[in-house]
Structures
1.
Amino acid sequence: MTGFEGMDLAVAMLNITLLAILFITAIAIARLRSLFAIVMLSGLYSLVSATWFVALDAVDVAFTEASVGAGFSTALYLGAMVLTSRSAKIEQGASKIIPLLVVIATGAVLIYATIDLPSFGDAMSAANTGVGIDYVSRTPSEIAVPNIVTAVLASYRGFDTLGETGVVFTAGLAVVLLLGFGERSLSSSLRRGRRSSADQSRQGGDDE
Amino acid sequence: MNSDHHVILRVVSKALIPVIALFGFYVQFHGDFGPGGGFQAGVIMAVAIILYSLIFGIAAAMRAITPGFVRGLAALGFLLFAGVGVWALIQGGDYLDYDALLGEEPGGHHGQHLGIMLVELGVLFAVSGSLVSIFYAFAGRVSEIRDEDW
């Protein structure tokens, strides 16, 4: 009746379950005020996203999402949270109608855009007919590595990867230039073998 | 971390951190054959260091792996990637053309394999160095994670 049978039905049920977990997690994040719980739930969101990417056969993307989204981002959010307060302020008298309208309009535009997307696994889609099939046919003779994703990333599109590495390096450089003074003062006080007492008293004041 | 009520956390993570780092190297050097590569391996290595500093304190992590070292590692990684391109230029090929690296006959794949390995190594250094630098910059602003922050 639904057009799904056997494995197709199982995969469809799996996708629906994972997307439902993502939806519930997003609603919970929007409603919570405790930043620690929000950080943990956003890590869970990334982990479920990674699982969903595995179900879509995008293993490399899933790998990146699991390590960056669930691993590094969560640790970084925790580090940032320690610097600020533990819970978000409740906004008084803020209008909820306009944000709701913006969200509904954006969602409607995105759903409208999916109508033009090729269906999942479509052999005639642009990604599967043009340069993609060219990489698949040429990698064994030109690069001779089993993982075509690696051949594309490191060799065919080496300029892209060089640029991405530059972006990561520049991001690290910018954060160190903006925030690195605390780290520098901490590491220098560690070298002197004592902890900055001014830092301690400032934290004591924050607790009240 | 003078009190002892994080003892389970410390014991478990002490066993896990070497495994995480080893898995990072596996992802790095197995990237030609399976999913993964320099970027994912760099993130995993960085997460191993970050987990260590979350559990044992930022001061111990900074003594083991100094902030200057990770900044230098990030710069070295990017230079290694860009340097492979310059090496190909010197050998008479195009920028980042790995076929030219060893000057071998057409049909040989050693230049491609060497180029991919060096480039992935550069990505590993740049990503892990940058991410640990970012974490140190955030976490280094407080001297210690207190119990109520958990």
Note: The two ends of chain A are 63 Å apart (CA to CA).
2.
Amino acid sequence: MQAVVVNNIDKTYGKVKALTDISFAVEKGELFGIIGPDGAGKTSLFRILTTLLLPSKGSAIVEGFDVVKDYKQIRKIVGYMPGRFSLYQDLSVEENLEFFATIFGTTIEENYELVKDIYTQIEPFKTRPAGKLSGGMKQKLALCCAMIHKPVILFLDEPTTGVDAVSRKEFWEMLIRLKKSGITILVSTPYMDEASLCDRVALIQNGKMLAIDKPDNIAKTFDKKLFAVKSGNNYTLLNLLKDFAKTDSVYPFGEYLHFSPSGNDFQRTELLEFLSSKGCEDVEINTQEPTIEDCFMNLMNNNS
Amino acid sequence: MKRFLGFVKKEFFHIFRDYRTMIVLFGLPVIQVLIFGYAINTDLKDAHVAILDNSKDQMTRQITQKIVSSGYFMLGENLNSTADIEKSFRSGKIKEVIIFKENFARDYLKDGKAKIQLIADASDPNNANLIVNYTLAIINNYQMSLMKEFKIPFQITPEVRMRYNPELKSVFMFVPGIITILLMLVCAMMTSISIAREKEMGTMEILLVSPLKPLQILAGKVIPYVLLSFVNAITIILMGKWVFGMPVTGSYLLLLGVSILFIITALSLGIFISTVANNQMTAMFISLVGLFLPTILLSGFIFPIENMPVPLQILSYIVPAKWFIIVIKSIMLKGLGVTYIWKELCVLFGMAVFFILISMRKFKIRLE
């Protein structure tokens, strides 16, 4: 049995269509990422799966329970971490954790092993009110609270948004450790660099699924040539490349610009000539292995 | 059950950690009782009068003496001419001027008729009425005592008794009123705000995705406020008794019992409001306009319901506070037992059940 099965889900708010014909399945024990920009429909999808919203059309099964009919059973077995920090700000770290343990009919001691790795990091601040924690610590506490009742499946809605780079890395290390203990994890994020850390990812934009596969496989679907281009002034270079006749797409990627030409007959010399004619000389051009981000940018361009 | 207790415990943390909540819960009752008790006092005490005695005989002196020594009035000044009257009113301190006509005693003894003029400052009409009536009563009294001396054969002596509040103290009116208002405020407003806060802060989202049942969430929110409101009710009753001498002629047990019933009614209203309001501001606004004003204006606390236009009288029937004020006055002042007030209690109970049922039905098990 699969952990999550989603069949042709639509979600509309009045006239706004948030999700269109979404279908996918998540295997048990999988770390499944849902990647998409803000407003793609990630939160709506998570709320449907955690029984907080009703789908306008279609159905979804979580651990064998229907999200509409069997919502009570689902609420007992899932761990949910909303995108917005939703703990009690006036309660201390320890009190928050204790409260969530109690309402699920368990105790901190009983499941301490499960949260130990994460909790030890925030334990020095356990008497501090949750509202006064830093962003990264808030997310760690929220994750503890979502896991303290030993859920079968975890839904994490943008857990790393607004968290610094180091904390983000730590957070993902935790998720990967958690996965090893057998918990199915669904995580959404707007950061594409996090995609490669998932077992499988679904790319979502404007409420539509663009691709669902392993990160490597998605990267392989990139069917065009790709170059990393760099010069002393990347901004001028970017504008010039946009004017270049054979440019299919170009966008900044770290210290390089990822450039893919249209047509298969592209030669580097063409580009170099074009650039030097515009007064841009010290240009470096390398071939680039496509990453999942390149795919996603490509898919998004095709879609919009 | 353990889940539920955990929830209640959390709710107590919220209350005790928010100093604003604490002020509303425990500061407000004490302050209100003191303000109403001392400031909003409709009893007459030491009203300043000015006297223009054009006769200056034994009789006018006796009357003046009686008025001034009554405790209700204080001699502000003695005027010498009618021209001073306007001036003394303008000073603002003098509330009434008593004018004796020339040859007061002589006229009275000769013709059996003498004239006194009372001029009151009616910029505060209720107070002016009160002052004039008190003065008249004293003058009448004096007249009676004169009649006794002269042995007039026929006379009617009315004997007036003010039942349940023989001294007509306004404290007796406001203590029940304050209990009502505060219980309404604390219970309805505070619960509706605290439930709305869970929605506003997003914590309701996690509570929904948990095994907690709607009834557990609502009851868990409400129970701390039941306990604290009960403490409040007791505080006000005791303050009324010790600070202002307000007696409780009926049974204390019954009084506390009906207070709990009213608390539950008010809480059910608060829960109902919270099912409509999505944030704290809305909850507060609805509570103030929808509950607070009717409780003050339409409950009979300040304005007698019998004197209102019929539509408002009808409207007052759906104000829970009206029924509670009837009940609590009956118990505190008249010492009546449950057999006399069961109808009002049934109304309150019915309202509570009604609102709880509606709220349970309206409680959203999802976000939309």
Note: The interface with chain B takes residues 47, 50-54, 71-72, 75-76, 78, 80, 82, 84-91, 95, 98-100, 102-105, 145 of chain A (CB under 8 Å).
